[in-house]
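[Solved] Which block belongs to which protein?

Original post:
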Amino acid sequence: MKERISKLFQERFGNTGSFYASPGRINLIGEHTDYNGGFVFPGAIDKCIMAEININGTDRVRVYSADMDSYVEFGLEEKDAPQEQWARYIFGVCREIIKRGGVVKGFDTVFAGEVPLGAGLSSSAALESCFAFALNDLFNENKIEKFELALIGQSTEHNYCGVNCGIMDQFASVFGKESCLMRLDCRSLEYAYYPFHAADHGYKLVLLNSKVKHELVDSPYNKRRESCERVAKQLGVETLRDADMAMLDAARDSISDEDYKRARYVIGEKQRVLDVCEALEKNDFATVGERMYQTHEGLSKDYEVSCEELDFLNDVARECGVTGSRIMGGGFGGCTINLVRDDKYDAFIATAKQKFNDKYGHEPEVIPVVISEGAHKL
């Protein structure tokens, strides 16, 4: 990828620049917990967005997307926002740095990516983090703190791309560390690294992308959020982070069946994240896997954000003796994340592809992932 970018940069701009990269992410466990003040447990992966960037001495930014084969040029004032959606991510990062008192001047760039689109691996956060990290290095002597770089990416989504996302994706892309997952407290924003030495203990992480996305009516995410907020209010707590099952059961009669199920999942997931942290410190991958299956069950039956295809992949994982498997991401399509013993890996992949193809007419996309470094200069 680097050679391809370098060749395109030379052809288009006639010189060379510095290289930067930032990864996509997985989330091992802790789903739909962010807006409930809970914990998430992401890790950066070995699939990244890479850019070559050179200061051009003007007030214009000239960008070529190698993957889209598309060229855009824009200024750095608010009125200069480009029409192209992909370019707005880069423009937004420039503007958010400037709004915070940072410096951005004209630059030339070519970028490309290997983060699969639409698989729930946060290619947009990887793009934002790559440019936030680079512009901090090129124009701001790396004075902007790493957490601020993640917030710059999040604000770009909110203010320039119309996506009201949490902080997890940008956080993981900026703070990622090789062979480490990160437990992020979505309320206090405190975080801690946990070793993830799966390969040393004979395990692989692999995503199976169903390549299915069910179109959603009546905004089910907002409805889930409203359910959680209603229950929290009923229990007299700020978010479900502060609730436990005893409190929920004590108020059972004043809570609808649907709201009860949503809250039961969230409260259970809070504990599952903590269990996984404890298990990883002992390299107890069997417990990690068990909690992954429990999360899938909760997301499917209580939170009801799964779909037939993802439940099918989860069932196949169980049949094949996979250690852990669950739906990853917001739901209604996308991927399962699977923790698989090396000796079961090939048979699992072959079986999943065959059975899924027989039932749904196409194979799932197989995406092996390794937990890797966050945003960096090459």
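(Second protein starts here: sequence line, then its structure tokens.)
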Amino acid sequence: MAYQVTVDYDVPLADYSPTFESLEDRVAAALATLSDTDSFPDAIDQMDQALSRSIFVGDRMASDNDLSQPGVVAHIGALLTEYDKTVVKSAAQLRTYITNRLILETDSADPRVRLKALEMLGKVSDVGLFTDKTEITMRHRPTEELEQLLRERLTRVIEAEVTAPPPAEAQKPTAIDFSELETDDGPTE
């Protein structure tokens, strides 16, 4: 069976060569080039800022031409750096907010809420009061000692098998006569 290939000519082709590198990697390489050539821009104009923002938010793909403009590269680099700092700063702020809210909850009238807040505060990694810690102690023994222990256990297992009672098949069940049994009502018949 042969396949027929249909080409859509009405779909516009990209005006840049596709790449599988991330924007961060491409910008880092362009920033390294700017640093090596000592060609950082003194000021970034409004057009470069607008272009770099549209690339940063994903409205536009960064072409090789875009990343060859020092103003665009410098501004995208600054945006990426600030974004990373903002995420870290947000995480620190969130941690502080949660800790402060837990401190407020320790004054609750409900004892269950109070105890839970105190427990959660104790689990904060800086405090570390209620963290579950597992301590493993390994005792290293010489090979000869381990071999001796193994021999002793094997000897006990073998001796237990030799002195074991005969299997249940060899014993025959005996018949029980229930007619001679007495109950509270008297003998059964």
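Accepted answer:
You had them paired correctly. Confirming on the second one: The chain has five helices and two strands.
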